[in-house]
Amino acid sequence: MPTYNGISVTIQVDGRLIPEYQIDINEGTKEITCWIPSYAGKEFDIRINNLTNSVQSRVYVSLDGQQTNIRSLGPGERQVVDKCRPSPTTYRTFVFSSGQPVGKPPSYSFPDNNKQTSSLDDDELSPDALNVAGLGTVQVSVFEGKIILDPHPTPSRDYRNIRIPEKRMIPERGKKGVEQVVGLGPIRSRPMEKPVMRRHSFRKEGLRAKPEFSVAFLQAQGIVPPDQLRQENPPKTSRNRKHTGVDLSPMNRPARAPKTSTNQQTPHEVIRLDISDEEDVEKLWALRARIDQALAKKDPSVARIKKEVKAESKPAFLKGEVIDLT
After folding, report:
1. In this structure, what DSSP letter does residue 226 have?
2. CA torsion 10→225→133→4, rounded to 10°?
3. Is there a contact between 24 and 33 (Cβ–Cβ < 8 Å)?
4. Which residues fall within 8 angstroms of residue 3, CB to CB, at 6 or more apart?
5. pLDDT at residue 11, as a whole number
6. Which range is most confident: 3-12, 122-131, 271-280, 293-302?
7. What is the pLDDT of residue 124?
8. In what order do the strands lie in the sheet with 66-73?
9. In which band, very low, low, confident or very high, does the pLDDT at 262 lie, cut at 50, 70 and 90?
10. In angstroms, rounded to a whole number, what is the distance separating the alpha carbons of residues 13 and 192?
11. How far apart are CA 61 and CA 82, in angstroms?
12. DSSP 8-class letter at 133
């Protein structure tokens, strides 16, 4: 998302920024909205950066209409929101998930056993299940104010009962194209948090909402160009990375660069190898001369070589010795 009032909000999957489409800035309501693709089954994190030198703010994060996190953000600080804390000793990560549509499809009869299929109807769902106003949205609300430090340290208590179901049921008549929702990863343990200073802030300053949909849905609506389908898959993590087939045995490994002494100064000159096939050979030789000159400066033995004339010692003569010159 573009920086607004010194606050930047981005979402990453596998350490890579996900694309954003149709960014809209509303100066009247101080809101920025955009569309983002959903990668079902992938964990994601929200990164909030305060790029100002004096603005103090507080951030509220809501997923699928449920408030999950509250963070204080001082000048120059960054907060990474990637999990919620249902209790003081547990946490769950945020995961893109696919909802399960619920409705009554037509019944089918089979001649062999006359079995019929049916599912739960919209009328049989609770009012909470029929309310899909907040589904498929990642919302970050920023409030500007003043951070006050409490002299009595207390636990942050940033844990609450997150009302995000294990498997989201989406009614057919109310989904309005929303099939991608936010889920939670498995429950993991964490140590009890130490007491910290309480910080407070106030006054609403901005809001950012990110509705997430599948790439296929965004393409069907004309939001995502068709040629970008293959470019938006996040890279695989190191544990899922495929073998490249390169032999890295000791015989085939590249030679290591020679170590230089700590007191040796490294030249700051940077040589750019930007040579096309049509350039002259003279430029290549000139570049080779520059490389040799730079390497000579790095080698300390070159500086110690001096041009000297070696003087041989004179022969010693004994007293009374006769030298025959014939």
Report:
1. G
2. 30
3. yes
4. 51
5. 92
6. 3-12
7. 46
8. 21-26, 31-37, 204-213, 137-145, 56-63, 66-73
9. very low
10. 28
11. 11
12. T
- pTM for the whole structure: 0.52
Please, are residues 81 and 229 in contact by the beta-carbon 8 Å criterion?
no
Query: H-helix or E-strand containing 101?
Result: strand 100-102
Residues 6+ away with beta carbon under 8 Å from 290: 271
Q: Are 44 and 14 in contact (CB under 8 A)?
A: no
How many CB atoms neighbour CB 140 within 10 A?
A: 23
- In this structure, the dihedral spanned by the alpha carbons of residues 159, 161, 164 and 167, taken in order and rounded to 10 degrees, is 110
CA distance between the termini of the chain = 102
Cα(306)–Cα(318) distance, rounded to whole angstroms? 37
**Is the Cβ–Cβ distance between 67 and 58 less than 8 Å?**
no
Written as one letter, the residue type at 170 is I
- Lookup: tokens for 92: 């769950």
Cβ contact 144:72 at 8 Å:
no
Distances (CA, A) of 191 to 28, 87, 159, 202: 44, 11, 13, 30
Per residue in 30-76, pLDDT tens? 888 888 888 888 999 999 999 988 888 888 888 887 888 888 888 89
What is the amino acid identity at position 326? T
Contact 142, 59 (CB under 8 A): yes
Q: Are residues 72 and 38 in contact, defined by beta-carbon separation less than 8 angstroms?
A: no
d(CA 259, CA 298): 10
Two structure tokens written together for 72: 């204080």
